[in-house]
Design goal:
A 6-stranded parallel β-sheet has the order 2-1-3-4-5-6. It has a 6-stranded parallel β-sheet with strand order 9-8-7-10-11-12, with helices on both faces. The chain contains 14 helices and 12 strands. Helix 1 crosses helix 14, helix 8 packs across helix 12 and helix 11 crosses helix 13. The chain has 352 residues and is an alpha/beta fold. The two termini are 13 Å apart.
Protein backbone atom coordinates (compact mmCIF):
# COMPACT_ATOMS: atom_id res chain seq x y z
CA UNK A 1 0.00 0.00 0.00
CA UNK A 2 1.32 3.44 -0.94
CA UNK A 3 0.59 6.27 1.50
CA UNK A 4 1.31 9.92 0.74
CA UNK A 5 1.93 12.16 3.72
CA UNK A 6 1.00 15.72 2.77
CA UNK A 7 3.28 17.84 4.92
CA UNK A 8 3.33 21.45 6.06
CA UNK A 9 5.45 23.87 4.04
CA UNK A 10 9.18 24.12 4.73
CA UNK A 11 10.34 25.68 8.02
CA UNK A 12 6.78 25.86 9.29
CA UNK A 13 6.39 23.29 12.04
CA UNK A 14 9.25 21.19 13.45
CA UNK A 15 6.75 19.12 15.43
CA UNK A 16 5.07 18.05 12.19
CA UNK A 17 8.42 16.90 10.82
CA UNK A 18 8.87 14.71 13.91
CA UNK A 19 5.30 13.40 13.60
CA UNK A 20 5.68 12.39 9.95
CA UNK A 21 9.13 10.87 10.58
CA UNK A 22 7.78 8.78 13.46
CA UNK A 23 5.04 7.37 11.25
CA UNK A 24 7.50 6.61 8.46
CA UNK A 25 10.03 4.87 10.69
CA UNK A 26 7.47 2.78 12.53
CA UNK A 27 5.16 1.31 9.87
CA UNK A 28 5.67 -2.20 8.52
CA UNK A 29 7.21 -3.06 5.16
CA UNK A 30 3.67 -3.44 3.80
CA UNK A 31 3.38 0.36 3.78
CA UNK A 32 5.35 2.52 1.37
CA UNK A 33 5.44 6.10 2.62
CA UNK A 34 5.98 9.11 0.37
CA UNK A 35 6.44 12.59 1.84
CA UNK A 36 5.19 15.50 -0.22
CA UNK A 37 5.20 19.26 -0.01
CA UNK A 38 5.52 21.67 -2.95
CA UNK A 39 8.43 24.04 -3.29
CA UNK A 40 7.45 27.32 -1.70
CA UNK A 41 7.47 30.65 -3.51
CA UNK A 42 9.92 32.96 -1.74
CA UNK A 43 8.48 36.44 -1.96
CA UNK A 44 5.91 38.51 -0.11
CA UNK A 45 2.72 36.45 0.25
CA UNK A 46 4.57 33.55 -1.41
CA UNK A 47 3.80 31.20 1.47
CA UNK A 48 0.11 32.12 1.37
CA UNK A 49 -0.12 31.65 -2.40
CA UNK A 50 1.75 28.34 -2.26
CA UNK A 51 -0.37 27.03 0.59
CA UNK A 52 -3.85 27.87 -0.67
CA UNK A 53 -3.50 27.99 -4.46
CA UNK A 54 -0.51 25.98 -5.67
CA UNK A 55 -0.45 23.16 -3.09
CA UNK A 56 -4.05 21.89 -3.66
CA UNK A 57 -3.53 21.49 -7.42
CA UNK A 58 -0.13 19.84 -7.07
CA UNK A 59 -1.43 17.56 -4.30
CA UNK A 60 -3.95 16.03 -6.70
CA UNK A 61 -1.08 14.54 -8.75
CA UNK A 62 0.72 13.15 -5.69
CA UNK A 63 -2.01 10.91 -4.31
CA UNK A 64 -1.31 7.47 -2.96
CA UNK A 65 -3.57 4.54 -2.19
CA UNK A 66 -4.16 6.51 1.01
CA UNK A 67 -3.68 10.24 1.47
CA UNK A 68 -2.80 11.57 4.92
CA UNK A 69 -2.84 15.32 5.55
CA UNK A 70 -0.77 15.57 8.72
CA UNK A 71 -1.95 18.97 9.95
CA UNK A 72 -5.44 20.47 10.18
CA UNK A 73 -4.29 23.82 8.75
CA UNK A 74 -4.01 22.05 5.40
CA UNK A 75 -7.53 20.62 5.56
CA UNK A 76 -8.38 22.56 2.39
CA UNK A 77 -6.30 20.04 0.41
CA UNK A 78 -9.26 17.63 0.69
CA UNK A 79 -10.98 19.68 -2.02
CA UNK A 80 -8.55 18.31 -4.63
CA UNK A 81 -7.96 14.81 -3.25
CA UNK A 82 -9.99 11.62 -3.44
CA UNK A 83 -12.02 12.09 -0.26
CA UNK A 84 -12.76 8.38 0.18
CA UNK A 85 -9.08 7.64 0.74
CA UNK A 86 -8.05 10.80 2.60
CA UNK A 87 -7.30 11.12 6.32
CA UNK A 88 -6.61 14.37 8.20
CA UNK A 89 -4.90 14.75 11.56
CA UNK A 90 -6.28 17.53 13.75
CA UNK A 91 -3.91 18.59 16.54
CA UNK A 92 -6.08 21.43 17.88
CA UNK A 93 -8.58 24.13 16.95
CA UNK A 94 -7.13 26.76 19.28
CA UNK A 95 -7.27 29.67 16.78
CA UNK A 96 -11.06 29.24 16.76
CA UNK A 97 -11.20 29.18 20.54
CA UNK A 98 -8.86 32.01 21.50
CA UNK A 99 -8.47 35.31 19.63
CA UNK A 100 -5.26 36.11 21.52
CA UNK A 101 -3.65 33.06 19.95
CA UNK A 102 -5.21 33.25 16.50
CA UNK A 103 -3.43 36.35 15.23
CA UNK A 104 -5.10 38.63 12.68
CA UNK A 105 -8.52 38.33 11.08
CA UNK A 106 -7.12 36.90 7.83
CA UNK A 107 -5.38 34.07 9.69
CA UNK A 108 -8.56 33.19 11.59
CA UNK A 109 -10.61 33.18 8.39
CA UNK A 110 -8.13 30.92 6.59
CA UNK A 111 -7.86 28.59 9.55
CA UNK A 112 -11.64 28.34 9.77
CA UNK A 113 -11.79 27.65 6.03
CA UNK A 114 -9.26 24.80 6.30
CA UNK A 115 -11.02 23.31 9.32
CA UNK A 116 -14.36 23.39 7.53
CA UNK A 117 -12.95 21.20 4.76
CA UNK A 118 -11.80 18.46 7.16
CA UNK A 119 -15.33 17.14 7.24
CA UNK A 120 -14.83 15.87 3.68
CA UNK A 121 -12.18 13.36 4.79
CA UNK A 122 -12.86 9.64 5.18
CA UNK A 123 -11.37 9.73 8.69
CA UNK A 124 -10.06 12.28 11.15
CA UNK A 125 -7.29 11.60 13.63
CA UNK A 126 -7.18 13.68 16.81
CA UNK A 127 -4.40 13.61 19.36
CA UNK A 128 -6.70 13.52 22.41
CA UNK A 129 -10.33 13.07 23.44
CA UNK A 130 -10.46 16.78 24.27
CA UNK A 131 -9.49 17.74 20.72
CA UNK A 132 -12.04 15.26 19.37
CA UNK A 133 -14.72 17.03 21.37
CA UNK A 134 -13.42 20.42 20.24
CA UNK A 135 -13.47 19.59 16.53
CA UNK A 136 -17.01 18.25 16.78
CA UNK A 137 -18.11 21.61 18.19
CA UNK A 138 -17.01 23.30 14.95
CA UNK A 139 -17.90 20.78 12.21
CA UNK A 140 -20.57 18.16 11.65
CA UNK A 141 -18.89 14.77 11.43
CA UNK A 142 -19.53 11.18 12.46
CA UNK A 143 -17.74 10.82 15.83
CA UNK A 144 -17.24 7.09 15.11
CA UNK A 145 -14.97 8.08 12.22
CA UNK A 146 -12.66 10.08 14.47
CA UNK A 147 -9.78 8.06 15.90
CA UNK A 148 -7.71 9.29 18.85
CA UNK A 149 -4.00 8.55 18.40
CA UNK A 150 -1.43 10.15 20.69
CA UNK A 151 1.13 11.73 18.37
CA UNK A 152 4.13 11.57 20.69
CA UNK A 153 7.07 9.21 21.02
CA UNK A 154 9.29 9.06 24.10
CA UNK A 155 12.14 7.15 22.50
CA UNK A 156 14.34 10.15 21.64
CA UNK A 157 14.42 11.32 25.26
CA UNK A 158 16.54 9.86 28.04
CA UNK A 159 16.76 9.96 31.83
CA UNK A 160 20.20 10.70 33.30
CA UNK A 161 21.87 9.38 36.41
CA UNK A 162 22.15 11.58 39.52
CA UNK A 163 25.88 11.96 38.85
CA UNK A 164 25.24 13.22 35.32
CA UNK A 165 22.61 15.65 36.59
CA UNK A 166 24.99 17.10 39.19
CA UNK A 167 27.65 17.68 36.54
CA UNK A 168 25.15 19.46 34.29
CA UNK A 169 23.89 21.66 37.11
CA UNK A 170 27.48 22.77 37.74
CA UNK A 171 28.03 23.31 34.00
CA UNK A 172 25.00 25.60 33.78
CA UNK A 173 25.77 27.37 37.08
CA UNK A 174 22.57 26.08 38.65
CA UNK A 175 23.97 23.65 41.23
CA UNK A 176 22.87 25.82 44.18
CA UNK A 177 19.27 26.25 43.03
CA UNK A 178 15.95 24.45 42.88
CA UNK A 179 14.95 24.61 39.23
CA UNK A 180 11.46 25.32 37.93
CA UNK A 181 11.28 24.83 34.16
CA UNK A 182 9.00 26.14 31.42
CA UNK A 183 9.47 25.08 27.79
CA UNK A 184 7.90 26.61 24.69
CA UNK A 185 7.99 29.64 22.42
CA UNK A 186 5.50 32.41 23.07
CA UNK A 187 1.88 31.62 22.33
CA UNK A 188 -0.78 33.35 24.40
CA UNK A 189 -2.61 30.21 25.54
CA UNK A 190 0.57 28.78 27.10
CA UNK A 191 -0.04 31.31 29.85
CA UNK A 192 3.58 31.98 30.76
CA UNK A 193 2.65 35.31 32.35
CA UNK A 194 0.92 33.35 35.12
CA UNK A 195 4.10 31.31 35.62
CA UNK A 196 6.03 34.57 36.03
CA UNK A 197 3.55 35.88 38.59
CA UNK A 198 3.77 32.58 40.46
CA UNK A 199 7.55 32.78 40.43
CA UNK A 200 7.41 36.27 41.95
CA UNK A 201 5.51 34.79 44.89
CA UNK A 202 7.81 31.77 45.19
CA UNK A 203 11.01 33.77 45.53
CA UNK A 204 9.51 35.70 48.43
CA UNK A 205 9.65 32.43 50.36
CA UNK A 206 12.77 30.87 48.87
CA UNK A 207 15.50 32.87 47.13
CA UNK A 208 17.16 29.65 45.96
CA UNK A 209 14.48 28.87 43.39
CA UNK A 210 15.46 29.62 39.81
CA UNK A 211 13.08 29.74 36.85
CA UNK A 212 14.53 28.41 33.61
CA UNK A 213 12.63 29.48 30.52
CA UNK A 214 13.38 27.67 27.26
CA UNK A 215 11.83 29.48 24.31
CA UNK A 216 10.87 32.95 23.16
CA UNK A 217 9.15 35.66 25.19
CA UNK A 218 6.67 38.25 24.00
CA UNK A 219 7.40 41.94 24.58
CA UNK A 220 4.69 41.94 27.24
CA UNK A 221 6.30 39.00 29.04
CA UNK A 222 9.71 40.69 28.95
CA UNK A 223 8.19 43.80 30.52
CA UNK A 224 6.55 41.63 33.16
CA UNK A 225 9.93 40.10 34.03
CA UNK A 226 11.24 43.63 34.68
CA UNK A 227 8.14 44.73 36.59
CA UNK A 228 8.28 41.69 38.88
CA UNK A 229 12.07 42.09 39.27
CA UNK A 230 12.67 38.49 38.23
CA UNK A 231 15.80 38.84 36.09
CA UNK A 232 18.15 37.61 38.79
CA UNK A 233 15.78 34.72 39.55
CA UNK A 234 15.48 33.57 35.95
CA UNK A 235 17.57 32.00 33.19
CA UNK A 236 16.26 32.56 29.67
CA UNK A 237 17.56 30.43 26.77
CA UNK A 238 16.25 29.89 23.27
CA UNK A 239 17.28 28.31 19.98
CA UNK A 240 19.05 25.52 21.85
CA UNK A 241 19.89 22.08 20.52
CA UNK A 242 17.76 19.02 21.15
CA UNK A 243 20.54 17.62 23.34
CA UNK A 244 20.53 20.75 25.50
CA UNK A 245 16.74 20.57 25.84
CA UNK A 246 17.09 17.05 27.25
CA UNK A 247 19.76 18.37 29.62
CA UNK A 248 17.40 21.00 31.02
CA UNK A 249 14.59 18.48 31.49
CA UNK A 250 16.97 16.26 33.45
CA UNK A 251 18.29 18.94 35.82
CA UNK A 252 14.89 20.54 36.50
CA UNK A 253 13.09 19.82 39.77
CA UNK A 254 9.75 20.29 38.03
CA UNK A 255 8.15 21.50 34.82
CA UNK A 256 5.24 23.95 35.01
CA UNK A 257 2.90 23.99 32.00
CA UNK A 258 -0.41 25.72 32.72
CA UNK A 259 -2.01 26.38 29.34
CA UNK A 260 -5.59 27.65 29.55
CA UNK A 261 -6.94 25.89 26.45
CA UNK A 262 -6.89 22.25 25.40
CA UNK A 263 -4.93 21.03 22.43
CA UNK A 264 -1.61 19.28 22.70
CA UNK A 265 1.93 20.30 23.47
CA UNK A 266 4.84 17.98 24.07
CA UNK A 267 6.74 19.50 27.04
CA UNK A 268 4.86 17.66 29.84
CA UNK A 269 5.46 14.29 28.20
CA UNK A 270 9.03 15.19 27.27
CA UNK A 271 9.66 16.09 30.91
CA UNK A 272 8.20 12.80 32.14
CA UNK A 273 10.40 10.88 29.69
CA UNK A 274 13.40 12.51 31.38
CA UNK A 275 12.21 11.86 34.95
CA UNK A 276 10.99 15.39 35.64
CA UNK A 277 7.68 15.76 37.56
CA UNK A 278 5.09 18.13 36.10
CA UNK A 279 2.52 20.69 37.21
CA UNK A 280 -0.18 20.92 34.52
CA UNK A 281 -3.48 22.73 34.16
CA UNK A 282 -6.87 21.07 34.42
CA UNK A 283 -7.81 22.90 31.22
CA UNK A 284 -5.27 21.09 29.05
CA UNK A 285 -5.97 17.98 26.97
CA UNK A 286 -3.54 15.76 28.84
CA UNK A 287 -6.16 13.27 30.00
CA UNK A 288 -3.61 10.57 29.24
CA UNK A 289 -1.23 11.79 31.98
CA UNK A 290 -3.40 13.79 34.36
CA UNK A 291 -3.11 11.17 37.09
CA UNK A 292 0.68 11.35 36.84
CA UNK A 293 1.16 15.08 37.46
CA UNK A 294 -0.17 17.71 39.86
CA UNK A 295 -3.28 19.42 38.45
CA UNK A 296 -4.01 23.10 38.98
CA UNK A 297 -6.35 25.75 37.62
CA UNK A 298 -4.57 27.67 34.89
CA UNK A 299 -4.80 31.14 36.47
CA UNK A 300 -4.74 30.20 40.15
CA UNK A 301 -1.34 31.51 41.27
CA UNK A 302 -1.81 30.30 44.85
CA UNK A 303 -2.54 26.70 43.78
CA UNK A 304 0.27 26.66 41.20
CA UNK A 305 2.68 27.91 43.85
CA UNK A 306 1.49 25.27 46.33
CA UNK A 307 1.92 22.50 43.75
CA UNK A 308 5.48 23.56 42.96
CA UNK A 309 6.40 23.75 46.65
CA UNK A 310 4.91 20.31 47.30
CA UNK A 311 7.12 18.81 44.58
CA UNK A 312 10.18 20.65 45.89
CA UNK A 313 9.63 19.68 49.52
CA UNK A 314 7.86 16.29 49.54
CA UNK A 315 10.52 13.82 48.41
CA UNK A 316 8.21 10.79 48.65
CA UNK A 317 5.54 12.36 46.44
CA UNK A 318 8.16 13.72 44.06
CA UNK A 319 9.67 10.26 43.58
CA UNK A 320 6.20 8.77 43.00
CA UNK A 321 5.40 11.38 40.36
CA UNK A 322 8.75 10.76 38.67
CA UNK A 323 8.26 6.99 38.66
CA UNK A 324 4.63 7.01 37.53
CA UNK A 325 5.21 9.70 34.92
CA UNK A 326 8.26 7.99 33.47
CA UNK A 327 6.45 4.66 33.26
CA UNK A 328 3.39 6.18 31.57
CA UNK A 329 5.37 8.30 29.10
CA UNK A 330 7.48 5.32 28.06
CA UNK A 331 4.36 3.55 26.78
CA UNK A 332 4.31 6.09 23.94
CA UNK A 333 6.73 4.95 21.27
CA UNK A 334 7.16 5.05 17.50
CA UNK A 335 6.01 1.46 17.09
CA UNK A 336 2.71 2.12 18.88
CA UNK A 337 2.12 5.44 17.09
CA UNK A 338 2.91 4.05 13.65
CA UNK A 339 1.01 0.82 14.30
CA UNK A 340 -2.20 2.68 15.08
CA UNK A 341 -1.80 4.79 11.94
CA UNK A 342 -1.13 1.72 9.82
CA UNK A 343 -4.25 0.05 11.19
CA UNK A 344 -6.32 3.07 10.19
CA UNK A 345 -4.73 3.25 6.73
CA UNK A 346 -5.72 -0.37 6.11
CA UNK A 347 -9.22 0.18 7.46
CA UNK A 348 -9.85 3.05 5.03
CA UNK A 349 -8.18 1.18 2.16
CA UNK A 350 -10.41 -1.86 2.68
CA UNK A 351 -13.49 0.36 2.39
CA UNK A 352 -12.58 1.57 -1.10
Amino acid sequence: MKVTLFKTLENEAKSMEIYSDNITKGVSKDIEIKHYRPEMLHFKFGRLITRFFIYPFKARKQQGDINHIIDQTYGHLTMMLNKKKTIVTCHDVIPLQDKKTSGNLLFRMLFKFSISKIRKAARIITISEVVKKDILSFIKYDPDKIKVIHSFSCEDFSRFSDTEKKKLRVKYGLDKYKIVLHVGDYVAYKNFSTVLKTMAELVKEDKNIKLVKVGSLSDEEERLVDTLKLKKHMVHVQDISFKELINYYNIADCLVFVSYIGGWANPPLEAMCCGCPVVISKDSSYEFIKEDGLLVEAFNIVKIKEAILIILKDKKLRNKLIGDGYKKARTLNKEKLAGEHEELYKEVYNEL
